[in-house]
Amino acid sequence: MSTLLSSLGRWSFRHPWRVLVSWLIVLGIAGAGALTLGAGTDNSFSIPGTESQAGLEQLNRSFPAVSGTSAQIIVVAADGDSITDDPYRKDIENAVDHLADLDDSVLSATSPYDENVSGMINDDKTAGIIRLQFDGQSTDVSEKTKDGLRSVVADLSDELPSGSQTALGGDLFATSIPGVTLTEAIGLLIALLVLIVTFRSFVVAGLPLLTAVLGVGISMAGIFAATAFASVSSTTPLLALMLGLAVGIDYALFIMARHQDQVREGVDPEESASRAVGTAGSAVVFAGITVLIALIGLGFAGIPFLTTMGIAASAAVAVAVAIAVTLTPALLGFMKGRVAGRPRKAPTLRRAQGPKTRDSQPENEGKATPAPAARRRFSDRWVTGVTKHPILVSLAVVIGLGIVAVPALSLNLALPNAGVLPKDSEARQSYDLVGEQFGPGFNGPLILTGSIVTSTDPLGLMEDLGDAVAKIDGVKEVALSTPNETADTGIVQIIPETAPDDPATADLVRELRSHHDEWLKEFGIDLKVTGFTAVGIDISDQLGNALLPFGIFVIGLSLILLTVVFRSIWVPVTAAAGYLLSIVAGFGIVGAVFEWGWFSDALHVAKVGPIISFMPIILMGVLFGLAMDYQVFLVSRMREDYVHDPDGKSPDRATRRAAALRAVRSGFTGSAKVVTAAGLIMFAVFVAFVPEGDSSLKPIALGLAAGIAIDAFLVRMTLIPALMAILGERAWQIPSWLEKILPSVDIEGEAVERERHLSAWPGDDSVVAADDLALADAGIEALHLRVAQGGTAVLTGGAPGALRVLALTLAGRVTPDSGRLRVASHLLPGRAAWVRAHVGVVLVSDAGAAASDLSEALRGRTALVVIDGVDSLPAAERDQLAARLRDADAATAVVLTAASPVSALEILAQAGRPTPDVIDVFPSADTPASRRHPAVLASPAGGLDDNPGSAHSDESSEVTA
């Protein structure tokens, strides 16, 4: 991957206009899709497979008058008046008549004075409620209808006696559509300031913001365009906005910081951009993939709107990654070498003032003496202090975060309702008035429904059922217990004693469901508990049940990914433990603010109480990906320094431990600046959504901001270095059996660095160059080989299977175990994709297909063709093969493998190809010298040794096995 990204970065640097225009076209297409296809967001929550959802679907079929969304108007009489007085009754009933004729979507408007309902006038007769039932869910009710409702309520308020109150609310107005406010721009301003300090350049600092804003624009437009095909909640775009901005800025920051450091060291800007995308860009792609997996894992909950939210947010992250590795180097291509920024002040020399002599002149006047040593950077002093007392630091962090996590035990989950809207909202005022006048349970009625088609006395049956329900603890009253018009379905409307988001209401729902079998036996009705409140409780319960499997998935994923990346057991364990600490501490801070009320006024929390039910699972998924970002960027630098320290391979344990400690300190110092900037930027972006943010998004934003700050600065930059110091060299140990089965993942750009070190090797224009090539499956330990452009070679000896492995290796289809191999100017294994594109391979297994396979292999600009097993072909097929080779480009090199070279030599002679070098890959004592030495060169002196265990000799030129 790193070599692919390196080439992509180089191409983007060379063609900046193409890349920029391409992304602008994508933005235009997405924007046009959003304008033409956008159908608006949908805040109706459903959860297939639950009892409440099944109940709603049953009501929709048999009792549509109570299945859709509802609204209510509360009227509170003036002090000393009664709501039953004639002036109130007349005005309210006139308003009910207007409401019933308002729109076709209004199925019914019920007066509080209706004899068929009870409980619509409170016990003190100071307030009454008008109930409205609509056809469909809240998103199906048009804005025109809502405006008509507001107009009727305003007229009613004008007509009622002075001192009375009216408020419009209910399920229809229970949720708000979140939007972007000016406060979010403060987060971007803080991010810009951090970038200016990091890059020491105003222009360079603006580039990550530019890429992030462009990425967010594309993803947001795509999400709104997708509303034409899927139901998207109003919280989804803002979550994608938060994540897109945060990761978009950070990913560009990682690449640009690496590029700037390299340019300051004198690296050519184009080469630096290529290296930066190949190294830091590889880590960016890995980090982005972890975020994607975690967000897509939100589907664990089995809740459609949450799955859609995860997919939308992951799309925003994917766009941010794609822009980071393409548009970032393109913008660097516009700037060329103007990215170094303002240089830091270099240490100056001071003039020495020596002792006075007799002529009153200082003895050393005019002589320059070195300035005092430069002050140690804060990151160096920090990591030194942390690693000097690692056990004490570790205990302090763990105990401190444990204390911070205590409020998490108080977290209660619920779907948002009008009670969490701002206090100046009319729906919130209605919610509070209803709770004050009728009791909190009136804001969240429950519905029991079931089929009564077999009943001979539906009215009596429903009356008896209502009486039984009224006896249940937690039921304040049964407002309605009646069959529908066709007497095949009955409903019981229950008013709980507690608010819809109160845990006691969830307990009541469970209690009602526990009587299912009893009432089925007594009344013969298969009852289901449903309604808006029951749906919210079911969603919260299912989300709570999904937390454990999701947590196991996320932590297990982190263990696997980090084990593959770092080749270590302890590094993944410490990373996962740190992630758990960050999560519970983030939950603790959310609990302290939203459950305990700490700083709730300062953060404009509308109501202290239960938080939105999908906050924990979103926080776990998002924070996992971001935490892995910091883990990779910090610890990969430590690993790199330890691997390149000769003392790390010392037989003396104390020496290895000292090397490990040095690597922790140097790796931390080398990456602390970028990680600090990234943490501050993400914190600023997330925290900006807290003060004026939507009530549903506010706890998520606060949890992410707190989690990022804790994870970046307390866990990754304090606890992890301390734990790594405690572990010492053991941090980098892994069982040999596990090492063998782990796939190789290059996220540190090792392949890019290898290419840089071997850029001058082999020093000629050979199409195939191999030194110390080892293939365990073929039994080859140290093969040296050269094939010139347009040249030919015949590889022979050994078992046919071994030669086939060698042929596939030269064609880029099999990865060598060690050694150096360059084919068609590309270094393997990093450039295997390029080699496969320029090298054809023919495996002779079906004689009749060999010639046609060769024609296919020679298509295009083929630099090399490898043909395996030619000695198994009959004479006629050899002639066809020779004819194809005769017509091939003379510049195409040919390598044939055969157990015996005779057939291969005949084919090449018929094709008119140059006299081949015949090389016995497995020479024996009686192998002629002519088959030992031609075109076989020793490994050149110097250069990067990729196989330290193999011998390099300038005198030996044998092919060895």
Automatic annotation (TrEMBL):
Primary subcellular site in the record, as a coarse category: membrane
Limits of the SSD domain: 204-334
Its membrane topology: Multi-pass membrane protein
InterPro entries in the cross-refs: Acrflvin-R, MMPL_dom, Mycobact_MmpL, SSD
Residue stretches of biased makeup (Basic and acidic residues): 356-366
Membrane-traversing stretches: 185-203, 210-232, 238-257, 277-303, 309-335, 391-415, 546-566, 578-599, 611-630, 672-690, 702-727
Region (Disordered): 342-374, 921-961
Name of the featured protein: RND superfamily putative drug exporter
Organism of origin: Microbacterium natoriense
